[in-house]
Amino acid sequence: MSDPETSERRAAILAAAVRVFAREGFHACRVSDIAAEAQVGYGLVYHYFPSKEALLDTIFLERWGVMLDAIRAIDAGEPSAREKLAAIASFIFESYRREPDLMKVIIVEVTRAANSFGARHLDQIGEAYALIGEILSEAIRRGEVRAQTDVRFAAMAFYGVIEQVLTGWIFGLLPAGEEHFDRTKQAAIELVFDGLCGERGAQRRAGA
Amino acid sequence: MSDPETSERRAAILAAAVRVFAREGFHACRVSDIAAEAQVGYGLVYHYFPSKEALLDTIFLERWGVMLDAIRAIDAGEPSAREKLAAIASFIFESYRREPDLMKVIIVEVTRAANSFGARHLDQIGEAYALIGEILSEAIRRGEVRAQTDVRFAAMAFYGVIEQVLTGWIFGLLPAGEEHFDRTKQAAIELVFDGLCGERGAQRRAGA
Amino acid sequence: MSDPETSERRAAILAAAVRVFAREGFHACRVSDIAAEAQVGYGLVYHYFPSKEALLDTIFLERWGVMLDAIRAIDAGEPSAREKLAAIASFIFESYRREPDLMKVIIVEVTRAANSFGARHLDQIGEAYALIGEILSEAIRRGEVRAQTDVRFAAMAFYGVIEQVLTGWIFGLLPAGEEHFDRTKQAAIELVFDGLCGERGAQRRAGA
Amino acid sequence: MSDPETSERRAAILAAAVRVFAREGFHACRVSDIAAEAQVGYGLVYHYFPSKEALLDTIFLERWGVMLDAIRAIDAGEPSAREKLAAIASFIFESYRREPDLMKVIIVEVTRAANSFGARHLDQIGEAYALIGEILSEAIRRGEVRAQTDVRFAAMAFYGVIEQVLTGWIFGLLPAGEEHFDRTKQAAIELVFDGLCGERGAQRRAGA
DNA sequence: GATGAATGAGATTTCATTCAT
DNA sequence: TATGAATGAAATCTCATTCAT
After folding, report:
1. A 143-162: CB under 8 A from B
2. B81-115 confidence digits (pLDDT tens)
3. What is the count of structural domains for chain D?
4. Are A64 and A121 a contacting pair, CB within 8 Å?
């Protein structure tokens, strides 16, 4: 109860920070905006977090950790690489559907911020690519995926497709309604596995 | 010669801004850093540009315009969609090879900056996706690409793969030596057209 | 026992404040540092003292009162001015030997702090000079000290010598080991009474 | 002219800082008070000085350097130790007469500030004592001063007498009018050389 | 054109103090 | 008594921008 890590107010500040970072951007917003959004005095923000940066670090680390765990669980649970990647894409798209602000903050403020937070959390970011890469390596061994595939490239490409779709949603360049999530997830998997002109993959799925 | 748009000093300031934005980030750097990099007094920056933001706007608009022109030219010149997209990927990778700082700035500071420059230049950014989308629409009509493909999605996915590779180079997560540019370009096209498990595409190219 | 003035915790807080003020300085330290040093919650500091300033006021007033009492007792008890001043110097040096932190705080944070605590406690500080001055006035009447001596000046000079020695110890500019206390006390009295070149005084004492 | 070290505005800021530090104390005053006193925007303070602390450092170092130079010159120029110390006392008292605020700042905020500026400038402060100590060592060799004198102690005591007189003036505990400077200087030298009861020294001077 | 001194709004952060428990 | 979460005034410092030269 008195553990500061589980304080309700702390959680409220974190949630407010997500909304404010998403709405105004990390650099454009002020700590007092976050405090106001959380309906607390802004001194309390500094009671729980040493700095504005620490807020974003905490948000990212917590969420990214959840994603890494999810990827590991998927890797352990699903049978084929195709289903694994589909599950990963599902998880990320579902994350966006449920918490678009959080995903926006992670992508816009961390994942591409090569000069600040991205550089700081490179290990965490790279870990995601590595996990996806391992799934692909295994798929090559099983014959699921072409042998000559560059695993590292393919992992990044797969993640790039997903992140770009998210970016499209964030910017309003791609329709984001409920009905699109599933279709887009399917399309992403199809693209990565079968390509734009691969009838075989399409047929295989049609027959299934 | 006396056209302020073509002044040598102006160009030096712009080039310096690219280097400094790439090195330190737009928010972290100071106008005086840019002036120092350009070896001019920082008052001169304000002689040529109304604000720090205008520098980044200018950098982005100029370069993005060149890219849009290139895409249009490629669209007009190449025979097949595959070759068109290959040429576009080539152009972008080549741009990075020649001017990595410039591309880093565009991707990191503009293209994903949903709350600031990205939002400001959404029309320009969207135009690129639209052009790629048109290439794909045409390809569907010609039967080059599966009919059921969601063109908007596919355009973003294609660009997402490219941007992610660039991001990998920027972060040092992907090997960036000279020899990788071509191979990666090929892999990107192959992935998008043939997918990870499409032998047909690979064979087709092997036979060519 | 239940008198808040004599509470054990209160005393612990006061003692902790002395250590912390001595170690970090009044301005540089935080109330929570004092509470941590006293091993109490920092709310308790405010239970016993109305403010951080009140802590220093209490420390100073308490100790300075002890010193004034001691001076008065010495004045009443010792026969000659020389012995009186020697006893005063002894008392102060002894105070530093036993409680260097306390004396450091009094000198550094109060006695010379012309814009804050020094000004606030000017009456108390001046009282010490006045008492010493009275001893010297009496000594002049008795012929112990030169008639033309400016008593106020001499009192301050005497105290100045003592305080400077303490400052030297505080800063580590003067050797502060046990063996130096007595020697320094003698030297201070000799200097004030006999000066640097007065053999007579030295001889007189040697003969005694 | 354009040397920032000799800028008029910079000098105005420094002079204003002296007045404000003297009037309100280093900790109690705000940088904006200094800027207002100097009649400049407070950004300019940071144009010339990196921090509020740097202002005090600069003030101290500049002035203390002048004093050390003066002491060295006096050491080289005067014949006897008595005259040397008299000249040093003169110089310091004269400094206070001409620039009481400056001397107040140096004594109150630096020379006794064991936890902040005093500690930072200990070398400079100690150098003054060392120079005075050398004068006394030489005086012992020449027989001017008792052989058994502890030089380090005596140097600090001498300086302590002077500083205490200054403190008395600062606090208004000692009369500070023009006519007192000379008398006090004489008294300080007499005290240190002849002591409170040394007729010999007094006679010697009376006869001179 | 070119410079950099000058400005001041505004941001982060600290920490003495209050107060509910 | 005792605690420490909560508050917010206030301080330092940064830096984009202006402007006199």
Report:
1. 144-146, 148-150, 152-154, 156-157, 159-162
2. 999 999 999 999 999 999 999 999 999 999 999 99
3. 2
4. yes
